[in-house]
Amino acid sequence: MMNIFEMQYENSIKKNGPLAQRMRPATLETFVGQEHIVGEGKILNRAIKADKLSSAIFYGPPGTGKTTLAKIIAENTNNNFTTLNAVTSGIKDIKDKISYAVDQLSMYNKRTILFIDEIHRFNKSQQDALLPYVENGTIILIGATTENPYFEVNPALISRSLVFEFKKITDDDIIKVLKKAAMDKENGYGAKNVKITEEAINHIVNNSNGDARKALSALELGVETTPETDGEIIIDISVAEECIQQKKLEYDKNGDSHYDTISAFIKSMRGSDPDAAVFWLAKMIKSGEDPKFIARRIIICASEDVGNADPRALEVAVNAFKAVEIIGFPEGRIILAQAVLYIACAPKSNASIIAIDRAMDAVEKNAVDVPLHLKDKHYSGAEKLGRGVSYKYPHDYEKFYVKQNYLPDTMRNSTFYQPKESGYESRIKKFLEYLKQ
Ligand SMILES: Nc1ncnc2c1ncn2[C@@H]1O[C@H](COP(=O)(O)OP(=O)(O)OP(=O)(O)O)[C@@H](O)[C@H]1O
To answer: Per the record's keyword annotation, is Zinc-finger included, yes or no (predicted)?
Structure first.
């Protein structure tokens, strides 16, 4: 349950807010996807129904239902419900919420669910302030984050919470959400006679990246800007293309533009354009992006796009992460810039990501029995079973290399790693060729 002001605010959003807010499901039955979390018999489903909720962290991409699920929980349990947004709140707001929760418990014997959006944006001392009250059960914390909580949320809070990972919403489920919004007479466009072509729906779905808010906002823009023809509003492919584009410019302040900037930033590093890379870095710093968030993207880029063409890129990136953690802003900008420029100017190879993705695919598609000669023989009786028997020890051979199969028998000679003729990796390539001569 929410307090009276929060309820009034919610109701007014429900009536007047954007389509995505108006269509926010209020019950588990209308909530799509995330079966692994809320499906029948799953722990959260049971906890909600039994009103026995413990603190939780909801982790996953935007628009996948983290806030929605927290609100459903609020509606369906007997606790108070109140919210904080970690981007806009400070320690005073946290203390106010705590004292509200303490009053509620002592006066009415009611616990309070505190939903904190973007909890990773709280610093350590802000997160620490919550701890004793989470620990003694005054507060049931539900923290939502798009960032991996094991890196970003205080381990003490994590260990007192259940972590639930939200997945991107599937295409079929997004279609359901869109069709429902088009037909819903009360909160959607059911009264407007909206027709969406199959092609338009597919286009919106394909460009929503599993984000229901993004899909609904595109539909909203389409309907609100398309005049009626013969009593119908027709959303065809050209309208859909416009809407999913324009939405990026007009709608999202923190949401899409944040992700678009990161995307431009990473693409500039990958594209070996140091000027553009440092420009997007500056934009992220100016818009208040967390330095550790930026540093993590740099680390990923160092491995994904530079890889073994210059193995030092990963070292530089990891060290930049550690350094900004110690230094913070404003000087942290120099450290980040150094790493970004290093990576933008380094030789490039995506051989590592290709290799691991191919290998993961192969693991899914093949039997993965370890060949007999590679099996562990360090236990009695292993040799009788033929384990490890015909294994050849490479150091006993010329060049410290011997030709031998290391893959499951069904996959002999599969190739996952194809070193590129780039930077240090070209030396790796030559070396492998020399071994195999
Ligand atoms: N699982 C879902 N089922 C039905 N509708 C959904 C679902 N997830 C999201 N939506 C729709 O998208 C809107 C935004 O979702 P929500 O605010 O729950 O996302 P979120 O995961 O909290 O995202 P963010 O991290 O950006 O805050 C909702 O108001 C709702 O209309």
So the answer is: no
Q: Domain locations in the chain?
A: 34-165, 171-243, 256-350, 353-436
pTM for the whole structure: 0.58
- Ligand 1 in reach of 127 Cβ (< 6 A): no
Helix boundaries (H) for 109-170: 124-135, 149-152, 155-159
* Multiple choice CATH, 171-243, 3.50.50.60, 3.30.365.10, 1.10.3720.10, 1.10.8.60: 1.10.8.60
In short, whether 177's Cβ falls inside 6 Å of ligand 1 is yes
CATH class of 34-165: alpha beta
- Ligand 1 atom 7, closest CA: 65
CB atoms within 10 A of CB 151: 12
- What ipTM was estimated for this complex? 0.96
Q: How far is the CA of 100 from the centre of ligand 1 (A)?
A: 27
Residue with tokens 């410290």: 400
Upstream peptide bond of 330 is cis (omega within 30 degrees of 0): yes
Q: Give the tens place of pLDDT for each residue, 65-90.
A: 999 999 888 888 888 888 888 877 88
Q: For residue 57, what are its two tokens?
A: 């962290």
How close is the Cα of 218 to the center of ligand 1, in Å?
14
Ligand 1 center to 359 CA (angstroms): 34
CATH no. of 256-350: 1.20.272.10
